[in-house]
Amino acid sequence: MKAIRKLDNLLARLAEHIFLPLGVEVPLAFAPASAADRAAMIASDRKGWVAVDRNLVWGEPDGYYWFGGTAVLPAAAEGRRVVCRVEAAFGNVMGRSDPQCLVRVDGRIRQGVDGNHREFLLTENGHAGEQFEILIEAGTIEDRRQLGFACVLFAHDLVVEDLYYDLRVPLDVARLLAEDDPRRHFILNAIDAAIDMVDLRPGSPGRFAASLAAAKAAAAQIYAAGDFEVKPTVVATGHTHIDVAWLWRVRETRQKMARSMATALALMEEFDDYRFMYNQCVLLDYLHQDYPELFDRIDGEVRSGRFEIEGALWLEPDVNIAGGEALVRQILHGIRYHEQTFGVRPRIIWLPDTFGYSASLPQLMAKSGLDTFVTHKLSWNDTNRMPDETLFWQGIDGSTVTAYFLTTQPYDSKSIGTTYCPNLKPTHVMGTWRRHGQQDLSKELFLVYGHGDGGGGPTREMLHNIRRMERGIPGCPKVVHAPMRPFFERLLARMKAEPERYPIWVGELYAEFHRGTLTSVAKNKRNNRLAETALREIETLAVIAAHNRGEAYPAEELRALWDIVLLNQFHDILPGSSIGAVYDDSDAGYAEFFARANALSARIAARLAPAGSKALFNVAGRPRGGLVVSREPFGRPQEQKLVLADGGEVYGLLVPAVPALAVVDLAGHGVHVPAGVLSVSKQHIENDLLSIRFDEAGRIASIRDRKTGREVLKPGRVGNRLQAFRDMPAQFDAWDIDSDFEDQVFEIDGLVGAEVVEHGPLRAAVRFEWRYESSRIVQVVSLPAGARQVEIDCFIDWHEHNTLVKAAFPLDLNTAAVDAEIQFGHVRRASHRNTSWDRARFECSMQRWIDIGEPDFGVALLNDCKYGYDAKGTDIRLTLLRSPTYPWPEADQGEHRFRYAVMVHDGDKLAVHEAAEDFNLPLRLVEGGEGGEPPPPLLSVETPGIVVEAVKQAEEGGAVIVRLWEVTGARRTARIAVDAAIRAAELVDLLEQNGRPLPLEGGALTLAFAPFEIVTLILRG
């Protein structure tokens, strides 16, 4: 250790000669501004700006500032490489820097500056008196003040820097090798001999230069030596992970993107071997809008091959909560953007930081021409280590893709956790190999490196480190600085050649961490669900109007609406793990969405029904009737006033079946009068199929199914039992629910009142109100006539913190698993605790339903905007809300509106799916305009078990896209009747490409579906 201490000391002294101060501080002036003022600030003559000195106090959360001045080179700069160093109170929090800056030199963007990238180049060959105009945009995020800001000139000695890394990098390798490893002693002896040749005495630059040359020649023996064993290879690609929003707003991320890309481009100018990858289309698109100069430079580097475009998604979304069609659009819009903008076809799903991965993804990838899935997040598991890192991943439909889990970590790490943004040193390269659990299978691994989230990506130090490891250092894996995609093409070829050597992981990739993100910031999740359903309805209406009325399809308006939804599905927005200002922006975005969506929907619907009429719209691919509601009375004797939990009222009318994907005139459609009897009091509610009893606290004491005579709830237990839990996770407040959340549970049973609010004839309902601490909870529990499901409409005015609320249902069934809907299907999860993997799944994801049952009898819980649940045996709990305090102290405070339902069935998954679809996408009442008689249905699915997920116009041309899927996990041959105006049909992939003609016989298509298969059709008139 004495030898290493000596070498560390002498190398630190050598490093002091890399940047030599020139004794010049650039006079600066300062002004606050906003991002919207950029053009004016660039053109400003800086009159009225404040002179900067060391006592300047500036910076605040979400702040934006400008610094400008003229750098004049002194005589000492003659003939030398000159850089400017920014001196600021840089903070480094979780890999990001504060402040973060973008530098212009003589009007041209030079690079980003942050705590990891403080120097920027002025000239390679300075001349005394030469002047440079410097302009710096600076953003601050943290709630702290900056003191002072300065730009100081330095001479940059590349020869010293070169020698320093020649010696520093192998020294960092040697310190990690075992004491008895001969390579360690070889390296240390070689470094010792080289450093002893360096003459650090001042006064003779020529003598110093000669000693550097001698030392460099001596160091060369390290890189010339062959290793003493066969070495693995690590392919390294530069990258910067940028959260689109998190502890900052989207508008700040637009600046982060500019700074990070400017830094990457500046380093490419100096390091011709630098290879960098970026993936998120949305940020590249923002860059194109905000900084076209940088975007054009990136485009040039993409064409040169040094800047790699990979990653197929529009951004890095959550993939548990986002709906199935939204995930299709994330892929579709992402691939089309990269193809149309850069001429690049991505093949990889790059999701290093998302909180768990749906088992629907392999099929979405396979049907989009994507072959590789990459992450590292499962290394954050709190219970189990994933057994493999290179594997085949099989989805619920049987589709299989390659999955690769990054293994980068420091060499001496004691955890299973890995990283995708290391400040790359030999320890990370050596750790990548050490952490790899399949060393017998592969000797070539991959890593990305670079500071993320505003840390600016790779640094000069990282690039120097890579150059030395590329040359080869005994004891360190061989490094190849190269693009990402070729590595995965080699891996895919090896896996294709010998598939039997690679394991297969079947089903979801459940992240044993961040389980609370299924519930945090509930309003955002509700807006997401409502927006997804609104888009499904509007697109279908627009296709009907285009197909039957010749109306122009509003493609641009719809794309703008999709952009709002896709942006807000980012993996720190939709999961509820961002600061409050992010949700201010999200609320504003959704408000704009719903205003524009409602106007667009009304405009289209007006063209599909006669003036002054009311029409019924069925967005489903099957005929269906049911309850339709209106804010205004229908003026029919069969209607009923319906009471909402938030105190509002609507009017309901029961209508017979409306054809699939059709608009019909309500006046000529008829009204359905329910059969059977409803009975209701404050203690019970029942119809011909269900009998519900309430206890004195307003909870459900009994659910009796009259069809079978079975009691649904366990003896002596109550359902719809509202429970509050202490919710104080040890690490990540908004992200986590810890396994000990049940250590403190509080019954919400302080019933304030119960009141019968509906007597029928369409449904009966009882309103309950509870108080819990400072919060108010109202539920309207209703039972429709002739229904086998009880519905619960909720209004909560919530004012508690660090509290988790669930609704519990102890079900009297004999089963050990729960089926939960995911995108385009469902998964089965054990509800026992036999293994550590089962115990770790104490909070799981769902889409619109979960179902538990025996072969001929089951109970499903439906919801209209909830995504988390837990199950122990046959005790099922819906997670209704959380109220974390970090990073947003006021998360989930205030009003919540949502619905859920308890459905009894005969073991029929199709019935569950259809009930959930009806619960989320009921028949809609639309206003007529100048549309004349409603048009005929576009198509109808005549085979049960096949549903329509989306109807839209094709991305290219005017044909109609219809997306269908099989819902129960069975093989089916389906018959789909189409409008007589349809003349041709093709089967296409999710990108609407690679069409295969389909026979159209008797006005219908016949299609074979595999279990859970997604099928996309193009229909042409």
Automatic annotation (TrEMBL):
Gene Ontology biological process: mannose metabolic process; oligosaccharide catabolic process
Record carries keyword Metal-binding: yes
Classification via InterPro entries: Gal_mutarotase_sf_dom, GH38_C, Glyco_hydro/deAcase_b/a-brl, Glyco_hydro_38_C, Glyco_hydro_38_cen, Glyco_hydro_38_cen_sf, Glyco_hydro_38_N, Glyco_hydro_38_N_sf
Gene Ontology MF annotations: alpha-mannosidase activity; carbohydrate binding; metal ion binding
Keyword Transcription in annotation: no
Keywords (A to Z) from UniProt: Glycosidase, Hydrolase, Metal-binding
Every Glycoside hydrolase family 38 central domain range: 512-590
Superkingdom, taxonomy of origin: Bacteria
Sequence similarity: Belongs to the glycosyl hydrolase 38 family.
Protein name: Alpha-mannosidase
Source organism per UniProt: Ciceribacter ferrooxidans
